[in-house]
Amino acid sequence: MKKAIYAGSFDPITLGHLDIIERAARMFDTLVVAVLENPNKCSLFTVEERKEHLELVLCNMKNVEVASFRGLLADFSKEIGATVAIRGLRNTMDFAVEYQMYLINRKLGKDMETVFLAADEEHLSLSSTNVKEVAVFGGNIDFMVPQEIKPFIIEKYKK
Ligand code: PNS
Predict the structure, then answer these.
(1) In this structure, which residue's CA is closest to atom 17 in ligand 1?
(2) Quick check: 95 pLDDT over 90?
(3) Which of 23, 22, 17 is nearest to 35 (CA)?
(4) pLDDT of amino acid 39
(5) Where does 3-158 sit in CATH, by number?
(6) Residues forming a β-bridge with 67
(7) Cβ contacts of residue 96 below 8 Å, gap of 6+?
(8) How far apart are the C-alpha atoms of 159 and 155, rounded to whole Å?
């Protein structure tokens, strides 16, 4: 049984994340999508809210589980028995950052491998940051996020 982990902030999940999740889920027996609990980062949604969004969007994907974690990805991966970390790449800037993270994760988790999935061309401009930048001004985010979570984003900015 090959278990992989796709960790991230998912604040909020984008269509780019969803594409990576769908593709990774086809490659592994189990895929754990894990929200990082990062007390140092100011987020739009709480960890619980982000987990709920993921559960809603991914509920029909039988081999996908949703989790959250604190601390190091390498430690959490070991704890849940995941040996492969999935990362999406949109461009060379992503690559520079992700390659460093891969090297560190390899040092921290001896049996840990990273699989990079190149983003679909439709999603090259997507990021959670861009979603928030558009949503705060009431712009159209239909092409950025799964439809199920759009109301939660709109609601957040109404407050
Ligand atoms: O959605 P993001 O911000 O691209 O996700 C980054 C994430 C959560 C995968 C990364 O920051 C992470 O794994 N953080 C946990 C701390 C860790 O293990 N760091 C080691 C690599 S520097």
Answers:
(1) 72
(2) yes
(3) 17
(4) 85
(5) 3.40.50.620
(6) 34
(7) none
(8) 7
Model confidence at 159: pLDDT above 80? no
67 contacts 33 by C-beta, under 8 angstroms: yes
Q: List b or e across 88-106, with b for residues whose CB sees 16 or more CB atoms inside 10 angstroms.
A: bbbeeebeeebeeebeebe
Measuring from each residue's beta carbon to the nearest atom of ligand 1, which residues come in under 6 Å? 7-9, 36, 72-74, 101, 104-105
Catalytic residues: 17, 41, 90, 128
The tokens describing 132, both together, are 């928030």
Residue corresponding to tokens 């754990």: 32
26 burial level (CB within 10 Å; 0-12, 13-18, 19+): exposed
SS3 81: coil
Burial of 4 (0-12, 13-18, 19+ CB in 10 A): buried
The residue to which tokens 């492969």 are assigned: 84
